[in-house]
Amino acid sequence: MFVCDVCDKLEDSVDKLKLHLQRHSDVGELQLPLLCHVCNSSYNKLYNFIRHLKTYHDSNTPSADGTVVCETDMRDDETDVYTATAGDLCAADVRSVGDLFEDVTSEGVSLVASLRASSVPYSVVPNVVDSVNVMCGSLTSVIQAEALDIVASCVSPETADIFKEKLETNLQRFRTPLKFLNSRYKQDKYFDNHPMAVRPESIALGMTVESISGNSSLNYECFQYVPVEQTLRALFQNKDYVALLLNNKHDCELLQSYADGSQFKHHPLFSDSSKFSLAIQLFYDGLGVTNPLRGSSVLHNIGVFFYTIKNLSQQYNSCFANVHLLALCYSQDLKKYGFDPIIEKFVCEMNALSKHGFEGTFPIIGHCTVYASLCHVSCDNLALNGILGFIESFSCDYFCTLCYATQEQIQTTFCEDLFEMRTPSSYDRDLNRLCGGKGRNKLHCRGVKHRCKLNEIDGYHVTKNYSLDIMHVILEGIVPYELGCILYGLCQDVSELDMDTINRAVRIFWGKITVDKAHRPLEMNKLDHSGQCISPAMKAVQYWSLLKYLPLILGNRVSGSDHWEFLLHLSHLVDLLFAPSFTIGMVMYLKTVISDHLNMFVNLYSDGGRVRLRPKHHLLVHFPGIILKCGPLVGMSCMRYELKNAFFKRSAHIMCNFTDVCKTLAYRHQQRFLYSLLAKDYLRNVLVVTTHRILPVCTLTISDLLCEQFSVEATDDVAVATKINIASIQYNEGHFVVVDEDIFGLPQFGKIHSFVSCINSNAWHMVVEYWVTIEFCKHVHAFCVSKSAPAKFVLVEVSSLLDHHPLHCHTVTVPNGVGRDYIRLPYHVFRH
């Protein structure tokens, strides 16, 4: 017998269980990963789970019961499609015909939904449905012919004719079970009527006259808008999603999220504890969906508006499914009409949701009113200035959205308190001067170009938009610029160093590393002078990886250089900026670090004014204040949003339909949104273990530890794995993790030995071998570690780790030939 984890119903075969679970999946009730209660395997696809049961635990399927290995070679990205076969239909000896037909249609709906949510062109899906119908018709004909042959040999011809007539009638609907989905129109109608579906709306911006074949006509210029309230209602139908919102705990002594900042505590809506309110972070970016080398690529450039719900923790907001679409529009229309017509719809909805909210009966919380409002806008610097109504040139004065900094001031002033900050009253004065008699011919007044529509949202003002993107400011701005200065200076100071040597060392290092393999930096070109950015241009994560490991790569080649000291200071600064949590003391210390860093840069590289601080350097001085008001900077990073742009680019290349590309892309995205809700893609804490072995405890080197911790006998069996997956992170045997913090405040590292679980338990534990942290070695900006003697093993849960990133232990050989082991943390972490 097989039990359903959703409703505890017993099924006597794998086929029946598969069909039963499929119905739960269609209505969004299936909880992933699926756990095998016999051997503790877990699977994030229904297909893989059923395949495992049939291979190892189905008594009707020949299998080696003595097998000690249970594994699957299916990839996680395979489509979860398990086509109904004749075996599925014959297995239900006690099921009604209606239930069997419902099973077949459920399989078809799941197949079509997964295809529409993938990168398959929609024109292909009806052909797939037709093929399924043809196969079902052929299979039905074979069954009918076999049944008639058997009946004809057993009964009289008259009875056989009656049986043939009834059988023909009863099997008719099984010949084309997916007829209701055999066209694009029928599929659209079916999925648009789903209770969780949210369709985009076309909203007119204006009209234009177009001439085709000599005939002129009026056409509306539109943008696509996805209502926020409908999206929130769809999300709140999911029990697991509501649980994520409620389980986001806050520590009043730490700054870990937006809710810990002073802005949240003084906001007129968010600070009202009697209301269930949602804080929304808005994002805008331009996107090219066609080949930029083509001459007509600019015609199809679009502007994308996304948002996330800040009530979720950073762990979940980095997920693709938790970044929601707000609007899509043509970039040409933005230049023509501006942001206001597009933002106006959003403003009206935010004011309605902040004042009246929306009522409903939701899982866990029951009947209540949910409120929502805008907390801040997060974009790259150019887009942020544009959407907030400030000047979009960073080579002139007053470019900052938070203060009145000038180009000369930012070269000598490195503290936020010394700048005149923008306020709502000063903003209004600037607008009045701009619109008054003396300012009518001006393009801007102290950086203000025009009034922003977002100011009409209750509790929001553009001068209080405390949000800057560290991906663009740090990783794509300051890091490549300063690394160019540092590497040029090192090549001048150290005779045996040049760019070819550095590139060779980077290449060798990435051949050894066991993490961040996909973030390998590109081979860098020769630097001609100080102040030149490293080239070619790389992705943000590549710049970050290069900065993280460069001290380890070149540490044994450099000594006593001011440029090297500045590299270490840059690494220290970036580690602090990317920290996931802060104390008030850390923020005060960060102010000092930023001021010292800018002073070091000026003293080291601004000889004769040839190398100057850039506007992005000035933005550093605002980071401590932003953290105090809105929480850690990683919560404002645009990296999660820009990763989602790949979906639109891929879809545009596949569909090749640019008649109304915004409408097509918005609709495809919402189909993906529906499938993500049903598949629970917004969950990021699911642990998946596929390949593992069942072994007696006594055969393991850690048998004593397992007997003590699990309270098992040495003759009992346990499941042992060499790798596990959680969300997008894979932990392998041999990786290092931060287990805890020692009494001196140093991180306690451990090397992953294996992963174990009791047969009757759902939990998997890391078997970690403790390593001793000797010291923090400033010269290579990493922790020096050594293997403990004798070896000490502990069992650790993944959720209890000090940080979730797997780490690499790198051995550096010093001039005397002795090797030392070092571990580099990605950012500053500490035990709360």
Walk me through the structure:
It is a single chain. This protein is an alpha+beta fold. The protein contains 25 helices and 25 strands. The chain has four domains: 190 residues, no CATH class; 225 residues, no CATH class; 165 residues, no CATH class; 137 residues, SH3 type barrels (Roll). The longest helix has 28 residues. 38% of the residues are buried.
Q: What is the strand and helix layout of this fold?
A:
Elements: E1 2-3, E2 10-11, H1 14-26, E3 34-35, E4 42-43, H2 46-56, E5 69-70, H3 86-90, H4 97-117, H5 125-152, H6 157-175, H7 184-192, E6 201-212, E7 215-225, H8 228-235, H9 239-246, H10 262-266, E8 276-287, E9 302-309, H11 314-317, E10 324-330, H12 331-337, H13 340-355, E11 358-362, E12 366-377, H14 381-388, H15 424-435, H16 470-493, H17 499-512, H18 540-554, H19 562-577, H20 584-605, H21 615-619, H22 623-630, H23 639-655, H24 661-679, E13 687-688, E14 692-696, H25 703-710, E15 717-721, E16 723-726, E17 729-732, E18 736-741, E19 747-758, E20 765-777, E21 782-787, E22 793-796, E23 803-807, E24 809-813, E25 819-823
Parallel strand pairs: 8-12
Antiparallel strand pairs: 1-2, 3-4, 5-14, 6-7, 7-10, 8-9, 9-10, 11-12, 13-16, 14-15, 15-19, 16-17, 18-19, 18-23, 19-20, 20-21, 20-22, 21-25, 24-25
Helix pairs in contact: 1-2, 1-4, 4-24, 5-6, 16-18, 16-19, 17-18, 19-20, 20-22, 23-24
